[in-house]
Structure formats: structure tokens, C-alpha cells
Amino acid sequence: MKRYKELFAFPHVITLALAAFPARLAYSMIGLGIFFKAEQETGSVAVAGLAIGLNSLAGSLTAGIRGSLMDKWGQKWPLRIFVPCYASLILALNSMHSKESILITAFVLGISAPPINLSVRPLWKDIVPENFLRTAYAFDSSMMSTTSVFGPVVVTSLALSSRPGLALGATSALMIIGGTALALTSVSRNWVPEKKAKGQQKLWRDRAIQLLMFEGCFIGFGWGVFDVAVPAYATQEGVQQRVAWIFAAFGIATVIGGLLGGLVSKKLAPLSALRNAYVVWFITCIPVAFTYPDWTMALVGTFIGLMGGAVQVFYFEVLEAVRPKGSQTASLGWIWSVEGSFMAVGAATGGWISEHYSPQIGLALLPTMLFCGLIILTIGKKRLDAANDVPTEEEDLQAIKDISNEVK
């Protein structure tokens, strides 16, 4: 782990990670927080599911807009406006009792979601040299994955306690703490958006971004189906209690996979690393269609998580290399808009397939969608040629000098 010790030695690295962690934890709690609030107030699982769907869809559709705002105005004011509004809306939702008010507030809550992850990602390029970006992205991805393991456990424990209101109350508090801490860090306050080149085309007309958005359609749909098919299968078999540790195994493996991805030699170009990892990721997903909600699903999920964590690291590198100038946050934001929207469609489809046919068909769709994504990246690899470059030793040394001068 020498590589990570060297990463942590750079100024602002630990500060940035710790500042954003509470807000990221809040994001990992909000979905189940909304679910339990809606279910406890209305007594309907269908209404609870609809509330989550509306919140996720609203957040996904507007992620690109929030990213574009930051690329134009910087991070200071968007965070200072979105964070308190979001935290206040969570508290408002916590005080509501009618089905209509809960559904409307859940939707508006998604629109007002603070761009926490979109804010953090471009900051790494400002605080670490080029040859440490892969390790920084790995660390960042692992921090996000860590919250996805602990957040659901925390919010479920609070929602099912004698004081269920603490679930959304704690979520609101964590967002205020983390969002404020991130906004007050010097690296966020001083972040200056890139200037676009004169006459530069619109982001969605860029051929590389179009390719990644197209790939995101299939990946989002596949994960949406998978997220519903697993609990649906376990419920049908009467072993709902196994869902938690199946997803926990997946989440922990994703953290480890991301950290291991950051240790891959920088001599391997981002695009080559992504495609190689993608192939293994697809292969590890194939057996999931033949698993049962027991140790077999947990084991296969562990391997899926390991490779998925590494893929995420290389994906961030590829995106950074191919995105148009001046789209540090909007590029990922719009891709997340597309991917998240198709994830919502996948979740609805997964529920219908599980109820009318079999959740195993839903599980089989995950490797199918990954195969489609792999084909898209293979056929369109020329659009991603910019991610085939490997920095020279001279460029690495110059980058380290530049970073050192900036933080003095």
C-alpha cells in the first residue's frame, strides 16, 4: 500500500475525502429513508417504491444540469444553495403524513440534490499529479462504495427503531455537515472551471461522450433490473433476511476492487485497462443467472463487485481523457443523467419480470447488458483514442512540480 501512503502525503487529499464523507453517507441513506417513511405513513409498499422511483428519476434527469451549473459558476454558490435546500426538504418530508405530499416532496428532493460527487471528482486533478490520478480515483470510488455498505444499515436501524423519525433527521444532519465541510475546503472554494474553447460544440454532440452515454443506457438498465431482481428472488423464496448480507458482500468487494484498481501500473493506458477489466467483469457476471439467494449469489456478487470497483476507476480515467474542455463536471453529470434514467426504467422492468415471469430472468439481464456495453466500447474504441496515451516520466515530474507550487 505504499502507493496510497504516497497519495495521502499530498496536501488536501485527506481533508477532501473526510469533508465529503458525511454527505456521501447521507446519499446512501436517503433512498431507504424515503422508502420507510412512505411505507410507515401510508402502509403501502407500492407507494414507498413509487416515492423512491420519483426521487431517483428526478435526481438523474437533473444531474447534467447541476454539473453544467458548476462548470459555469464554480462550486462555491451551487453547494451553498443546494445543500441547505436539500437538508431542509428532508426535514419537511419527515414531517409529512399524506401520500400526495410525500410523493411530491420526494420528487422535488431529487431535483434539489446537491452535486457532492460531481464536485469532488474534478478536484483530484488539482491536488495530485497526473501519475497519481488513477490511485486518487480509486480512493475516491472506494470512499463512495464504503458509504453504500454502511448507509443502508444505519438508516434501516434508525427507521425500524422506536423513533423512526431519526432516520431522515440523521440524513439531513449528515448532508448539512458534509456539504458545508466540502464547500468550506480551500480546494473547493478556489476551484476555477475550465474555459471552453471558442466555437466548441455542445457536450452531447461530442462523439466520445455520445459513446459513453450509449454504453450507460445498457449498464444503467442492467443494474436497475439487478437491484430489484435480487430482493424479489429472495422474497419469493422466503429468505428476505439474506438480501442484506448479499449486498453487503457485493459492496465490500467493490471497495476492495476499487483500491486494487488504483494499484495497476500507470504504464497501462486507461482505455486498455478499462477494456481488459470490462471483459473480466462480464465473465464474472455470467454465473449470477444460475445462483440462488444464498452463499452462491453472495460469492458471485463478490467477484462482480471486485471487478466492478476496478472498472469504475478506469472509467473515470477514460472520461477525464476524452471529455471536451470546460466540462469537468457536466460530462459525468449528463452521463449519470442518462444512466440513472435507464436504471429507473430497469428497476420497473425488473419488478414486472420478477412478478410475471421469474427473477432469474432479471438476473440474466445483467451479464447481457454488460456484454452490450463491452461491444459498444469495442466497436467505438476509436472515439476514445485520447485515453490511450500514457504520460512520460518527464510529464510526471513536471506535474509533481506544478502541484507542489500550487499548494505552497
Show the helix and strand layout.
Elements: H1 2-8, H2 13-42, H3 45-73, H4 76-94, H5 99-111, H6 116-127, H7 133-159, H8 166-184, H9 186-189, H10 207-236, H11 242-261, H12 270-285, H13 295-322, H14 330-356, H15 359-379, H16 393-407
Helix pairs in contact: 2-3, 2-5, 2-6, 2-7, 2-8, 3-5, 3-14, 4-5, 4-8, 6-7, 7-8, 7-11, 7-13, 10-14, 10-15, 11-13, 12-13, 12-15, 14-15
Main location: membrane
Subcellular location: Cell membrane
Pfam families: MFS_1
Question: Could you describe the 3D structure shown?
Answer:
This protein is mainly α and 408 residues long. Helices cover 78% and strands 0% of the residues. The radius of gyration is 21 Å and the shape is globular. Residues 392-408 have low confidence and may be disordered. This is Major facilitator superfamily protein. InterPro entries: MFS, MFS_dom, MFS_trans_sf. GO terms for molecular function: transmembrane transporter activity. It comes from Candidatus Planktophila vernalis.
CATH second-level architecture of the largest domain: Up-down Bundle
Structural class comes to mainly alpha
Number of helices: 16
CATH superfamily of the largest domain: MFS general substrate transporter like domains
CATH class label of the largest domain: Mainly Alpha
Please tell me how large the radius of gyration is.
Answer: 21 Å
Overall body shape? globular
**What is the CATH third-level topology name of the largest domain?**
Growth Hormone, Chain: A
